[in-house]
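Action item from last week, closing it out:
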Amino acid sequence: MRNHDEILEFERLFARGAHGRFEPNTDVHLDEAERTLVVHVELAGADADSLRVAVDDVYLTIAGVRALRDISRDASLLRKEIQYGEFLKEIRLPVPVRDDEATALYRDGILTIRLPLAQSKKFPIVRTEIRMTVRRTTA
């Protein structure tokens, strides 16, 4: 799964600011019993053939497309919350993993990626930026 050229291609195709780009919701947990990092990505409606997963020493990268659903021309759109278009999700790996036995399964709209932990028990200290929205109330 380690392929730096593929990651560069992801970055080229899904550059920040690209039209229709979004980041799908993701859960990441450590299964200590199986010594595996498990990643669940919510991708209901995504084209399975478009999904690409790559891992390097620092990041897990997931890219693909969720095509816009065809809405009848006679219909009036009353609410639009589902995001469509190309997506790119980069997850900084919190622990060292092995990519030689990694697996990815897309079923029922959820992409599940399992990354076996590397033998190293040394967990790097990672500083993560958290995006924050501040909503002010009127006085």
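Closing note: Helices lie at 4-13.
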